[in-house]
Amino acid sequence: MEKRGKQIYAVAALLMSFISSIYSLSVTVNDVECVYEYVLYEGDTVSGNFVVVDHDIFWGSDHPGIDFTATSPGGNTVHTIKGTSGDKFEFKAPRSGMYKFCFHNPYSTPETVSFYIHVGHIPNEHDLAKDEHLDPINVKIAELREALESVTAEQRYLKARDARHRHTNESTRRRVIAYTVGEYLLLAAASTLQVAEFDKIIDEFRQLLHKCELVIKRETGAANRDANKKQERVNIT
């Protein structure tokens, strides 16, 4: 009974530690934005991922991408990623303390970055030797917790990428609709101008025909008058 109680306690501890370690955030990067995370133990595994949600909407082919830098408490760069729209990272903490994770956006357009980070700690033999209450089963629990955390991190990364693709599809759909509506409006405007120009040409042609008719009538009238005069002269003679 006591053994079963320990197992239940261990599983409960695993679930509580797993749930408490899950978190993510969204960062709006105008120029440089930093996030801080405290690492309790030297040698802990710091892992995570980030995705620029709107990059397919606003970025052109010449956009250099977002830069990511992780800095140790001593001010040393422990991990860096240059010119990307999203990636994963993982490194061993060289020492305990406050770590800084910074994003640099070289363009003035604000970018929304979905950021996820996790600090994993698995007790080793040295920890077991120092703490007699640290049972090997707790080590197995920590290993299982980190395995579950790795799966969760991958799911969050894929979910963020899926959200970015949805934003891209929505943006593309809106642009296609706007382009189609604009195209129809331009076509209607061009057709209206063509009809107006055609009516103007028809009016000018009618005026020209009218002038020609008047000239022909004048010439015909003059010719008839000359013919009548000649006929009168012939009759008199």
From TrEMBL:
Record's bilayer topology term: Single-pass membrane protein; Single-pass type I membrane protein
Signal sequence region: 1-24
Cell compartments where the protein resides: Endomembrane system; Membrane
PROSITE patterns associated with the record: GOLD
One family name in Pfam for this protein: EMP24_GP25L
Domain GOLD: 32-119
GO cellular component assignments: endomembrane system; membrane
Main location: membrane
Record keywords: Membrane, Signal, Transmembrane, Transmembrane helix
SMART domains the record matches: EMP24_GP25L
InterPro entries: Emp24-like, GOLD_dom, GOLD_dom_sf
Family label: Belongs to the EMP24/GP25L family.
Protein name, as recorded: GOLD domain-containing protein
